[in-house]
């Protein structure tokens, strides 16, 4: 997904040598800049399939741990109409739906209720939740990352409708809702680094582009998460266009948002992170960007 926009080393060599008397110092600077660029590009690579499966298990378990600490009757700040029991049930139902979807293979429509089967909680809620997670992960693993399946984002042609893309999205589903349960227990924690690092790019290629043309004044927003990477979002009547990496330095930006990757992802999903994002430029454009997507 990431395009390396750095020029070849031979081109840099030819460009520097005639004009720089201190060639060795210039060469060291070039190598340092390339190392930084490559490190940023590597940080922005999507999760491997095996890592995604492990994180689905890890974050689902974190959800259940936090649910135990909070109590199932506690209210969820990130989902004001829900209790913790509602939250755990929702995640389990989602996981059972996607397990059925992946098992069905290539399809033009989502699985119907008969295909999904019984997805209502029964017995001990947390035991049922663990079984739902185990079914999802086992089904994903058996199918493999390249198998095609129905996805609700397929029509945008930005993210693929593959099992690998489903697994990647389910990491965010479990990660954000684990944070919700932690908040309900009074101890909201940042998203784990792997979840957060992949979460920005996943949101920009799945959630954001499915909302159609940008309905407000056109603009460009740079999202900067430091070592986690940076993205340029071009918002206009033709929709949303996203460019990863450092190739957008010459583009005139309307606003720049700077935050840790975890805070950025949680802000995308409209969670209270306790402090505002740092915005340079037009704050109204950023507010519109965060409020625009339909997250239902």
- CATH A-level architecture of the largest domain: Up-down Bundle
Total separate domains: 3
Major β-sheet profile: 5 strands, mixed
Helical segment count: 10
Determine and state the CATH class of the largest domain.
Mainly Alpha
Q: What is the strand tally? A: 7
Oligomer: single chain
CATH homologous superfamily identity of the largest domain:
dinb family like domain
Provide the fold topology:
Elements: H1 9-16, H2 23-43, H3 49-70, E1 75-76, E2 79-83, H4 84-104, H5 113-116, H6 125-143, H7 163-184, H8 193-207, E3 219-224, E4 230-236, E5 239-244, E6 255-258, H9 261-268, E7 278-281, H10 283-291
Parallel strand pairs: 3-6
Antiparallel strand pairs: 1-2, 3-4, 4-5, 6-7
Helix pairs in contact: 3-4, 3-6, 3-7, 4-6, 4-7, 7-8, 8-9
Structure in a nutshell:
The chain is an alpha+beta fold. It has helices spanning 9-16, 23-43, 49-70, 84-104, 113-116, 125-143, 163-184, 193-207, 261-268, 283-291, and strands spanning 75-76, 79-83, 219-224, 230-236, 239-244, 255-258, 278-281.
Keywords:
single chain, 296 residues, alpha+beta, Four Helix Bundle (Hemerythrin (Met), subunit A), Nonspecific Lipid-transfer Protein, Chain A, 3 domains, 5-stranded mixed β-sheet, two-stranded antiparallel ribbon, globular
Description:
A hairpin with a 2-residue loop joins strand 1 and strand 2. The two termini are 27 Å apart. Helix content is 50%, strand content 11%. The strands form 2 sheets. Strands 5-4-3-6-7 form a 5-stranded mixed sheet, with helices on one face. Helix 7 packs across helix 8. With 296 residues, it is an alpha+beta fold. The protein has 3 domains: 35 residues; 141 residues, Four Helix Bundle (Hemerythrin (Met), subunit A) (Up-down Bundle), CATH 1.20.120.450; 81 residues, SCP2 sterol-binding domain (Nonspecific Lipid-transfer Protein, Chain A).
């Amino acid at each position: 997904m990431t395009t390396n926009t750095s020029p070849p080393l031979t081109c840099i060599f030819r460009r520097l040598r005639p004009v720089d008397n201190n060639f060795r110092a210039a060469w060291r600077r070039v190598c340092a800049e390339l190392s930084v660029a490559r490190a940023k590009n590597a940080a922005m690579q999507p999760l491997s399939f095996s890592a995604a499966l492990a994180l689905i298990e890890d974050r689902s378990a974190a959800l259940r741990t936090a649910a135990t600490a909070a109590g199932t009757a506690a209210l969820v700040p990130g989902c004001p109409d829900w209790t913790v029991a509602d939250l755990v049930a929702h995640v389990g139902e989602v996981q059972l739906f996607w397990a059925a979807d992946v098992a069905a293979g290539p399809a033009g429509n989502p699985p119907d209720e008969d295909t999904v089967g019984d997805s209502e909680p029964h017995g001990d809620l947390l035991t049922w939740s663990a079984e739902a997670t185990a079914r999802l992960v086992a089904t994903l693993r058996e199918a493999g990352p390249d198998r095609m399946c129905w996805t609700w984002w397929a029509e945008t042609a930005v993210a693929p409708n593959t099992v690998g893309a489903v697994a990647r999205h389910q990491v965010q589903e479990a990660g954000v809702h684990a944070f919700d349960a932690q908040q309900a227990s009074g101890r909201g924690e940042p998203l784990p680094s792997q979840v957060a690092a992949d979460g920005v790019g996943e949101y920009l290629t799945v959630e954001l582009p499915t909302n159609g043309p940008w309905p407000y004044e056109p603009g460009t927003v740079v999202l900067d998460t430091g070592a986690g990477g940076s993205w340029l979002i071009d918002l206009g009547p033709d929709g949303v266009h996203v460019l990863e990496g450092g190739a957008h330095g010459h583009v005139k930006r309307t606003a720049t948002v700077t935050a840790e990757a975890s805070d950025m992802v949680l802000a995308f999903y409209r969670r209270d992170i306790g402090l505002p994002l740092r915005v340079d430029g037009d704050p109204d454009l950023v507010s519109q960007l965060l409020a625009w997507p339909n997250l239902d």
